[in-house]
Design goal:
The protein is mainly α and 424 residues long. It has 16 helices and no strands. The longest helix has 43 residues. 56% of the residues are buried.
Length: 424
């Protein structure tokens, strides 16, 4: 029976929760434990940050080969199971680096299955006119849950049960996504007899077939989006992965003070990202997405030098950096699928993001490792942070070169649910 009201907003709310659980808590919570690995196992910064990029490289095939073939909501269930197993392993591992890297492989599979791609696809299928707003709501979950991940999850659990017990409990939290994905979420409006945005059939999108991978790869706009997002996400990942190490180098030597600084910064960054997603999502529905996205990427680049002025005696600098960086970061991630859907069509989004997301993940993981190696060579963080700034700036320039042309998918006819049509 067709629901009386538009079910899409319930989908967006459900995605808010599952996205926050599957990505916000584990991804933003993990760097909190890096200095514990360093002290407990004697690992270096490059040792600690190498697991993520190795796993990202070994899982490059997962997105293009598997993700677009299966139900997004079922992928969320399977992906959170992989993430749970990975964190249970992190909590029980000894000092074996090969085993540590293997657990990162499990985590990356979980991230690909239950992270951005399935959530972006579901939201893009349910919304056309209000896609920016709906995507913004969905990404709020990452900001809210990510903000909680250190100050209200990782640190209290570590204080109570030790860092290994905290990691295992975080793994168990992943299973909270299961009932939401299975009982509330639906992949497409047609599954409940509705149309995108709750509109009549003649105002909804056509179900045209997705573009072939070869077609996507032949478009200059695709490569500009790949390069721009790769650079910007790589710079953001580097800041997130090294922020606690930077704080330590700049005078936060007491463990409690260091943990508190990391917790407060993460909270401000992730909750400020909520504002970035709301504001930029609203703007993306009203102005050309190219300009909104380019402005966001330049903002991310401009805030990176502020990290160098954060000191234990000047808390204002910590909050200023965190709020501005978080605002830009929040919109940065969210605008990538919006731009991909606009440039290539919503029905091609899964295939486009199956290439873009692994590429971004390479930047998000290998560049932090490169920063760790550079830090070991030069002995301090100013030069590595300068290279992060350059990477972010290159990403902003690439996005500014995107064409403004929009592939319209909002005003074409779609057949009624259950009716088969043919094209003449």
């Amino acid at each position: 029976m067709r629901p009386k009201s538009f079910y899409g907003w319930w989908i967006s709310l459900a995605a808010f929760c599952t996205f926050g659980i599957s990505v916000g808590i584990p991804y933003y919570g993990m760097p909190f434990f890096y200095d514990y690995y360093q002290k407990t196992f004697g690992w270096s910064r490059p040792d600690i940050t190498l697991g993520f990029p190795i796993a990202a490289t070994l899982t490059l095939w997962v997105g293009p080969l598997l993700v677009h073939r299966f139900s997004p909501r079922l992928l969320i269930v399977v992906g959170t199971a992989f993430t749970a197993l990975a964190f249970l392993g992190f909590g029980t591992m000894g000092g074996s680096l090969p085993w540590y890297y293997t657990l990162w492989f499990l985590y990356m599979v979980g991230y690909i299955f239950s992270g951005p791609i399935p959530h972006q696809v579901i939201v893009s299928q349910w919304f056309r006119k209000h896609r920016g707003k709906a995507m913004g709501i969905t990404y709020l979950g990452v900001g809210l849950f990510g903000g909680l991940s250190v100050k209200f999850v990782g640190k209290p659990l570590t204080d109570a049960f030790g860092f290994q017990g905290a990691l295992m409990i975080i793994g168990g939290l992943m299973l909270l996504a299961w009932p939401i994905a299975l009982l509330v979420m639906r992949d497409r409006p047609v599954d409940v007899g509705q149309y995108p945005d709750g509109e009549a059939a003649n105002l909804a999108s056509t179900q045209e077939p997705p573009a072939a991978f070869a077609t996507l790869l032949s478009r200059p706009a695709f490569w500009l989006l790949v390069i721009g997002s790769f650079c910007s996400i790589g710079s953001i990942g580097s800041i997130n992965q090294h922020m606690k190490f930077v704080f330590k180098e700049q005078g936060f030597v007491d463990q409690q003070a260091l943990d508190s600084a990391m917790a407060n910064a993460t909270l401000c960054i992730l909750w400020s990202s909520i504002g970035g997603r709301l504001v930029m999502g609203w703007l993306a529905d009203r102005f050309p997405k190219k300009y909104v996205m380019a402005a966001t990427y330049f903002l991310v680049a401009g805030t990176i030098p502020l990290l160098l002025v954060v000191t234990p005696t000047d808390t204002t600098s910590l909050y200023l950096f965190s709020i501005l960086f978080g605002f830009g970061m929040g919109a940065d991630y969210m605008l990538i699928p919006l731009m991909a859907a606009e440039q290539f069509g919503a029905n091609s989004l899964a295939r486009a993001m199956a290439i873009i997301l692994p590429t971004d993940t390479i930047g998000q993981t290998w560049f932090p490792y490169g920063i760790a190696r550079l830090r070991e060579v030069v002995g301090s963080y100013p030069v590595p942070l300068g290279s992060i700034f350059g990477l972010a700036l290159a990403g902003a320039i690439a996005i500014s070169l995107l064409p403004r042309h929009k592939k319209s998918d909002e005003t074409l006819h779609v057949p009624e649910p259950g009716r088969v049509t043919t094209r003449g």
